[in-house]
Amino acid sequence: MIRRARLLLVVLVGLTMTGVSACGSVDAGSEAAAEFRLWMADTEHVDSLDLNSNNDLPWSGTLWAGAVVDPDATVSQVADVARRATSFESRASATFTIGYTRGDFVARFAVFPGAPAANLAMIQLADHVDRSTAATEFTAAEASGRSEGGVTVTAPDGFLVVFDQLRTLLAAKDVRAGELLTVRDAAETFSIVADRTSGATGPRAAFEAVLAAFPVTAAQLTDTTLDVRVAVDETPEVEALARRAAPAVRTTVQFGNVTRTGQGDYTAADALLAELTAAGPVVGAVLSPDSAQVTVADLLTLRAMYVAVGDGPQYDGVALTIRTAGDRFAVSSYDGQPAAYLPVLNALSAPAWATLLTAATVDANGLDVRTADLTLEQARDLGAVLAGAPAGVEIEVRPGTGIGFRLVTSAGLTLDSLDTFGEPTGTEGELLVAFVDGWGATA
Question: Are residues 124 and 31 in the same domain?
């Protein structure tokens, strides 16, 4: 069943550039931005301007000129703004866009010099998407030189419906959009990337056959392939069903929350995953014959799993990485003994670090800690926490916007022991002193 929800649509189309030679400032991009602001100053229904410019070479530059129109502007009034904006001439190469926000709908799209009919068609299309679909955003912008469309929808079970709707709308209007369309849900769980004239007929048939028989949790379709994930134990019936529906389509199937990559013997990786799953819930896992990357909900689960399987560095030839959701904590067993770092990670999981710590990673290189900006007291506390790391290992610290530094753990850590990534300012120097003081306080 298709859920009623506002959708997010994005259309990407190639843009053209325009430029006219004239005498003026050596900084052509900056000059063009200033001139465009004056050019649009008395234009009705313009709420604001969004300008960016580059001075590429002497007397040449680039201008990205966006006009944000009033939310109540009509199609005709928006067309007037587009006509005024695209009539602007300068020595800079210029790209023009129109944008507006109406309620929960946001539009931003390209308009072109000397193309009033095509611009009007784009304005009408954006208006139609707003008034006749569940869209929350419609954008049309430069796509790295390629003319292609892209759509993002918020309802996973409606991504194919929106793909067809956009195909119909583009066919009915003379807009500058290419043949390739991309439609995906906001979480990028479901997507289709296909020619809008063919519509990925085969992969859609395979997907719909699987969807009718199994609980599908993710799917990616192209003109020739289907990658699908189902919430059941591994069974060959899923792939067989897809191939019966569309024999020429290359179908790849993943099961549950486990993704398999590459060919080979998965016996050791499967056994390791079974041990980990017995120790705590697995949010997701990516396996290869010689590696297991496992995501868990929190550090407590990560610790329980290392207690259950022991301390690597490898498990029957399988390298293990366990990370918490959001990558806040990650521990890899590729080398060394990561369990030795767990007391430090446990200290960093305390409520005091809930908003300050952005990431803590343990791997073959040692411990990497990243935080938000720290006060002197917080820098001192961080030094005290990290002093609990094993002796003789490398720690890298990046405290927000402050200067980062590297050290090798030792009982007699001094300010000179810190290898800073640049020359610290006065305030940064004070933070480094506070960090060393906190480290020494635990001795």
Answer: yes
Which pLDDT belongs to residue 22?
A: 42
Helices (H) and strands (E) in the chain, counts: 11, 23
3-state secondary structure of 415: helix
Together in a domain, 49 and 186: yes
Side-chain half-sphere CA neighbours of 39 within 13 A: 21
Asked whether residue 237 falls in the same domain as residue 101, the answer is: no
> H or E element: which one contains 49?
strand 46-57
Give the helix, strand, coil percentages of the chain, each rounded to 5.
35, 30, 35
φ/ψ of 262, rounded to 5, equals 85, 170
Domain extent, residue 239, equals 201-256
**Alpha helix segments (H runs only) across 353-419:** 376-386
The total number of structural domains in the chain stands at 4
Tell me, what's the pLDDT at 175?
63
| b/e 268-293 (16+ beta carbons within 10 angstroms → b) | bbbebbeebeebbebeebbbbbbbbb
Does residue 42 share a domain with residue 64? Answer: yes
Q: Which of 256, 272, 295 is the C-terminal boundary of a domain?
A: 256
Q: Tell me whether residue 245 is in a domain.
A: yes
Q: Are residues 110 and 84 in the same domain?
A: yes
Strand order in the sheet with 46-57: 7-8, 135-139, 105-111, 93-102, 60-69, 46-57
**pLDDT of amino acid 144:** 37
The single residue listed with the structure tokens 């709707």 is 165
Provide the residue type at 65 as one letter.
Answer: A
Q: Is residue 31 located within the same domain as residue 110?
A: yes
214-242 residue pLDDT tens: 999 999 999 999 999 999 888 899 999 99
What's the number of CA atoms in the CB half-sphere (13 Å) around residue 92?
28
The C-alpha atoms of residue 405 and residue 414 are separated, in whole angstroms, by 13
Q: Is residue 2 part of a domain?
A: no
Query: Are 292 and 343 contained in the same domain?
Result: no
